Amino acid sequence: MQSIEFLYPIAFLLLPLYLFLVWFVKKYYRRVGFSNVRLLKKALHKSFDYSKILKLAIITLLASALATPVTKENIQEKSKKGYDISLLVDASNSMQEEHRFTIAKEIVSNFIKERKSDN
């Protein structure tokens, strides 16, 4: 079973900070004077603005990336008795003659199949 944890969950405080700043800036600094009321009504009667959703999605993904998500796996050790075996196989050009490397791979794979309790 895997679970996702965040190394720096404090990075998610960027979301409420962003929302507060958007509200604050909109409330105090977004005042524009119009001399033409018909032009103002026409400007306000536009389709839905997807840029706000896109900006919020970008901030959310940025905060998630800064929080550094990591997956934690429940590692279960297998308690089996056996040997830890390392095999070294020569892969030089001389092993390519007469298909020696292919023959060596077959011998090693047969050896591995027989060693069921070894690593």
Describe the structure.
- With 119 residues, the protein is mostly helical.
- It has four helices and two strands, in the order βαααβα.
- The chain has a two-stranded antiparallel sheet with strand order 1-2.
- Helix 1 packs antiparallel against helix 3.
Order of helices and strands: EHHHEH
Helix amount: 40-55%
Please tell me what the overall shape is.
Answer: elongated
User: How many helical stretches?
Assistant: 4
Strand tally is 2
Q: Low-confidence stretches at least 5 residues in length (pLDDT < 50)?
A: none
How does the major sheet shape up? 2 strands, antiparallel
Tell me the span between the first and last alpha carbons: 23 Å
Strand numbers in spatial order across the main sheet: 1-2
Beta-strand content: 5-15%
pLDDT average, as an integer?
81
Radius of gyration: 32 Å
Structural class: mainly alpha
List keywords for this structure.
119 residues; mainly alpha; 2 strands; elongated; 46% helix; 4 helices
Task: Give the helices and strands, then pairings.
Layout (H helix, E strand, L loop, with lengths): L1 E5 L7 H16 L7 H8 L6 H16 L2 E5 L26 H15 L5
Antiparallel strand pairs: 1-2
Condensed summary:
The protein is mostly helical and 119 residues long. The protein is built from 4 helices and 2 strands. It has a two-stranded antiparallel sheet with strand order 1-2.
